[in-house]
Amino acid sequence: MGKVFVQIDGISVECQEEDRILEAAVRAGIYIPNLCFLQDQEPPFGACRLCFVEIRGQGIVTACTERVRNGMVVLTDTPEVLRLRRTAAELIISAHPADCRHCTKNRHCELQKVASYLKVRLKPHRFKQMYRALPLDCSNPFIIVDPNKCVLCGKCIWICNERRGVGALNFINRGFATTISTFPELMTEASCATCMECVDNCPVGALLPGEGCAVHKE
142-178: string of b/e by CB count within 10 Å (b at 16+)? Predict the structure, then answer.
């Protein structure tokens, strides 16, 4: 696998020819907003649509799916890139409960980081608020599942099914009703290996260490 050089916001970055732009940026310490990126996931899920960048001479692409090419010039903060990212972030936020003060992930939440970077509010502004009121799953003493906070990044599903080979988690339903769930619907110890990788990689507060559901209910 050969080495190539790309330019990201004027910084020359050395990477492997099979890398994707987001991988190259992460290694170089260049932040590109994202919620669904996993280093070893192939193909990338590309669900959050937050990692838009512009390639000079080509146009706008998602950084997690586009492979690097030698001499490629990448721009991460053009007006159109920022407009698309902010729209994607606001759509995610419109379906996400804004109860940060009561969330265990407060100040360690990737959605908070994205919103701060893009300068968008953590409460719906342009788009109608569309919160769900689904029950917490506390059937596993080690993991609490809060489907209301899920941003459908797919990280937990890929980790559980592909990396760990357990298969306890998957998406259910369609459209706005889509959420993560287990089969036959509860995250019991029997269906989960309790490796905690899904919890460690959840970008928001949808999967939390089990400490009793009472403290997570308002």
Answer: ebbbbbbbbbbbbbbbbbbeeebebebbeeeeeeeee
Q: How many CA atoms lie within 13 A of 191 on its CB side?
A: 16
Question: In the structure encoding, which two tokens stand for residue 28, read together?
Answer: 């170089």
Beta-carbon neighbour count of residue 45 at 10 Å?
Answer: 18
d(CA 38, CA 13): 20
Residues 152 and 73: their CA atoms lie apart, in Å, by 31
Residue closest to 33 by CA, chosen among 63, 66, 12: 63
What pLDDT sits at residue 180?
86
Closest C-alpha among 2, 1, 17 to residue 72: 17
Six-digit token pair at 20?
């994707």
Segment-wise mean pLDDT, segments of 10 residues, the chain, 218 residues? 92 94 94 95 94 97 97 97 97 90 92 96 84 85 90 95 90 87 62 88 93 55
Return the pLDDT at 186: 58
CA 95/CA 183 separation, integer angstroms: 24
For the chain, the C-alpha Rg in angstroms (whole number) is 18
Spatial separation of the C-alpha atoms in residues 112 and 100, rounded to whole Å? 9
CB atoms within 10 A of CB 106: 12
